[in-house]
Amino acid sequence: MKKFKAFVVLLVVVFVALVIYQNREYFFTKQALSLSLGVETWQWTAPEIENVYYFGGSLLIGLLITGYLGLCAKFRSRKTMKMLNVTINSQHQTIDTLQTELDKFKSDPYFKKKEEPVEELDENSENDAIELPANLEKSQG
Predict the structure, then answer these.
(1) Domains in the chain: boundaries
(2) What is d(CA 130, CA 141) in angstroms, rounded to the nearest whole number?
């Protein structure tokens, strides 16, 4: 993959160099940039330089801004990862504490109950009704 990236970068550099070489009349023409803010006294004119330097400066400024934004994103993600790792560690501690408490209850004979199998009702089986003793039926009725 590294070789492929290097090859692509080399192709881009060759393409840019070819464009500059074929248009060298335009790129090596000197021009001055001027800035006017609407008031006669607020006017600024840069010295004449070749167009290739304007393109190079724009490229350099773009690379610097992109690098700065990339570093900001990296630091932000590193901070997020630290916070998430702290959360994970605290949750692991909570899990260990709860597991210890559960083990205590499982090993305590006072809380141990015999597991009785649950009987499942068939669809055809009769419903079990609780029959009241005869003396209770008379008192309620």
Answers:
(1) 1-24+51-108
(2) 16
